[in-house]
């Protein structure tokens, strides 16, 4: 076969100049594609710190503090116990008695849990199962597992530290919220955790990310 006529292909090609603004646009498109598109890019939850008050729909919650608490031994056969505690001031804004509740072990389990503490969908750093969490409310010094309507209640979430275990410097909480909807079965108004579908599961929407420094007790 003979080569087609019409001149040599060995001439140097002229460089193609791409404007800088086009490169920036292409980079932005690439990042957006990695995030799943403009409408699916994850939202950054509201950052909060100690003392902040969050409207969770069903609850008004103040993030009081995180601290190390020591319970002294009550007898010679007992031993001192150390805990990392998360302290909240919670007011139930609904018309019904609510439960203090428990955080879920996995974030996808949170939407089916009841009670305030279920909205603490991620607590970092994580503790093992033997350490807790132990959760209770305090009203006028008395422990309770209920949150009465419009009654401010201090809620304690605590984890026991092992002997010699160093407490973390800070605790970070991913917190969800609740919205009032209608029950599918009987059209009764009910409060449910705000969630969104991811694949074949529902995950809570994170309304706020709260960072609390851990206050050390003297001698701990």
Topology, pairings included?
Blueprint: H1 20-34, E1 46-49, E2 53-55, E3 59-71, E4 81-92, E5 98-99, E6 120-124, E7 134-139, E8 142-144, E9 146-147, E10 153-161, E11 170-175, E12 178-182, E13 189-193, E14 195-198, E15 201-204, E16 208-215
Parallel strand pairs: 1-16, 3-16
Antiparallel strand pairs: 2-3, 3-4, 4-10, 5-9, 6-11, 7-8, 7-10, 11-16, 12-13, 14-15
How many distinct domains? 1
First CA to last CA: what distance? 89 Å
Helix percent reads under 10%
Q: How many individual helices? A: 1
Calculate the mean pLDDT score and round it: 83
The proportion of residues in beta strands is 35-45%
Main beta sheet: 10 strands, mixed
Organism: Actinomadura luzonensis
Keywords: Membrane, Transmembrane, Transmembrane helix
Protein name: DUF4352 domain-containing protein
Please give a handful of descriptors for the protein shown:
220 residues; mainly beta; two-stranded antiparallel ribbon; 1 helix; 41% strand; disordered N terminus; membrane; transmembrane
Describe the overall structure:
Keywords: Membrane, Transmembrane, Transmembrane helix. This is DUF4352 domain-containing protein. The chain is mostly beta strands. The protein has one domain. Helices cover 7% and strands 41% of the residues. The chain is built from 1 helix and 16 strands. The strands form 4 sheets. Strands 1, 2, 3, 4, 6, 7, 8, 10, 11 and 16 form a 10-stranded mixed β-sheet that branches. A hairpin with a 3-residue loop joins strand 2 and strand 3. The longest helix is centred in the first third of the chain and has 15 residues. The N terminus is likely disordered.
């Amino acid at each position: 076969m003979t080569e087609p006529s019409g001149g040599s292909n060995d001439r140097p090609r002229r460089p193609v100049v791409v404007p800088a603004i086009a490169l920036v646009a292409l980079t932005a498109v690439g990042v957006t594609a990695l995030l799943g598109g403009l409408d699916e890019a994850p939202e950054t939850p509201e950052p909060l710190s100690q003392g902040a008050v969050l409207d969770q729909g069903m609850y008004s919650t103040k993030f009081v503090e995180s601290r190390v608490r020591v319970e002294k031994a009550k007898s010679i056969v007992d031993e001192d116990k150390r805990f990392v505690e998360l302290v909240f001031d919670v007011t139930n804004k609904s018309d019904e008695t609510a439960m203090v509740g428990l955080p879920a072990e996995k974030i996808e389990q949170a939407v089916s849990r009841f009670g305030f503490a279920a909205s603490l969908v991620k607590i970092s750093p994580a503790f093992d199962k033997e350490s807790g969490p132990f959760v209770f409310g305090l009203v006028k010094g008395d422990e309770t597992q209920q949150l009465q309507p419009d009654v401010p209640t201090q809620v304690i979430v605590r984890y026991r530290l092992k002997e010699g275990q160093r407490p973390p410097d800070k605790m970070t909480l991913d917190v969800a919220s609740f919205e009032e909807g209608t029950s599918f079965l009987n059209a009764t108004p009910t409060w449910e955790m705000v969630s969104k579908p991811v694949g074949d599961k529902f995950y809570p929407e994170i309304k706020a990310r709260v960072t609390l420094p851990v206050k050390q007790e003297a001698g701990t």
